[in-house]
Structures are given as C-alpha cells and as structure tokens.
Amino acid sequence: MGINVNNLRIFMEVAEKMNITEASKALFISQPAVSKAVKNLETSLNIKLFIRDKHNGLLLTDVGKEILVLARQMKVIENKIYQIASRENKFLSGKLKVGSFPAASTNLLPETIALFRSKYPLVSIELFEGTSNQIKEWVKDRTVDMGIVTSPFDNYEYKILIHDYMVAIISEHHPSMNKKKIDFEEYQNEIIFCKGGHETVISTILQEHNIAFKENLTVQTADTLINMVKKNLGIGIISNFTLSSVSHNLTIKDIHPKINRVIGIITHSFDEVTPATKEFIQVMSQLSKDNEGLTGKR
Hints:
Order of helices and strands: HHHEEHEHHEHEEEHEHEHEHEEHE
Strand content: 15-25%
Largest sheet: 11 strands, mixed
Helix content: 40-55%
Number of helices: 12
Shape: elongated
Distance between the termini: 39 Å
Radius of gyration: 23 Å
C-alpha cells in the first residue's frame, strides 16, 4: 500500500495547527484541498486520524498521534537525505530544530549559532523554548532534532556541557545576610523555588539529608523569583547558570546541603542525527567552557 507523501505533509501541518483554516494558510492551498488530502489519507490507511468535536474542534485520535510521530520521523529522514547530499556537494543545508530552556538560549546559543552560521549559512535554525521536561517530550516525539536540558537525562543519549549548582539569593535586609551559607533545614519555610527542571535533583538531595522538600512558593521564571526576593518574600533558590542569564543586585549565598546538576544535549541517538545536527552539537561542544566530551546513557 503506497502513501501519498503530499497528503502526509498536509496531515502533519493540520496536526501541528489543529485547525484546517490555519493549515491552509500555512500551506497556501484552499481549505477544501486540505480537508480532501486528510480524508484521502484516512481512506488509504483505513483509519480515523482526527475526531471532529463540536466544542473542541479537531482532536487527534490515538492512532493519529502514533502516525504523527512516524510522519515526523519520515520528515527527519528526508531532511537527512538532503543534508547528506548537500554535504557531499560541500553545501550543508536543510533545517535544524533545537529545543532549549531560556537560560541556555541566553548563555549558550548566541555564540554557537553565530559560529555555526559562519560555517553553514544554508542551514536554517528553528528554536523551541520550554522547560527541560517539555524539551524531553519534544525530543521524544521528534518535534526537535536535539534538546538542551538539565539532568537527569532519563534514557536519552547525552553530552554534558556545563556543571552547574544551586545557589540562594537574598535581599540586603534579610536576617541571614551575615551568614556564609543558607541552610535548607533552618530556612525551609522561607524558600522560594524557580521551576527549571531541577526539582527532581533538589528533592533527591534533601531526602538524602532527611530534610522536607516544602514548596511554599514556586515561580516559573528567574525574573519573577528575583522580584519576589526583592519584595522580601523569602529566599530564592535558583541555579547559578540560570542566575547568570539575568541582571540583579541581590546577594548570592551558597546553600547547605550543596546541590549540583549538569546541563547537556540530548538526542535519541548521536549516531542517527542529521548532518546539520551533528555539526551543531560539535560547534556547541567546542564552545562550552566546561565541556568534558562525555557521552552516554543513564
């Protein structure tokens, strides 16, 4: 049974937009043509890809979700074929999709992208920003070619870029100003956490020291955390790497117990990534100050 590749591409666009009208605009074809392509694909596969719900619009069926992941894999393979051909002709091209959390986008990507573009100007780059957990999902379902995340790296292949650690930030009026370190156990009722994918690491270390992990106040961004601390609402706990990506005039303190984490690149397989992805990873690794060239699986 042959699959119409054009119908498959249209299905992918509809699945991304979850809207026939938006998909038709993105593809520059009529809405009836989009609907017909999806219907023809459903007929050829003898399955339902979408549920048409009156209240929620289009919804992917379970099998539709599986087909979407496979379709993305096909697109990656197609992109890889063109990139290999381009590389053979000394002109690496194609598209590279990178998942990154905001601090990594600020601290690591600008220099990497600048150097990569100087070498491979024909490769277009699309950046997807989110939390480490979101990025892991994007790598899993092939939305991105590679992800920059914080540990743990789950079952993905990874390359370590940065060795990071958690710090405390306090305002100049906080009673702990003269203390060398902030003790979690002593100040656990004042702690403000910033979500960033390190919750698992923090929880594990505190459990090892028999300290309760209390989420008294949790915020989403470093900027929000800084503003909360400035208002004397508590002690902020944030990674040193993330803190370096934002401006502030707060006092930084070490914490006890010490909490380390690492930042790295994840993929399904470094051997199977596209040529553009492989070159991008190589450039990023060369530029990373703390890169130790470690790869492996957890």
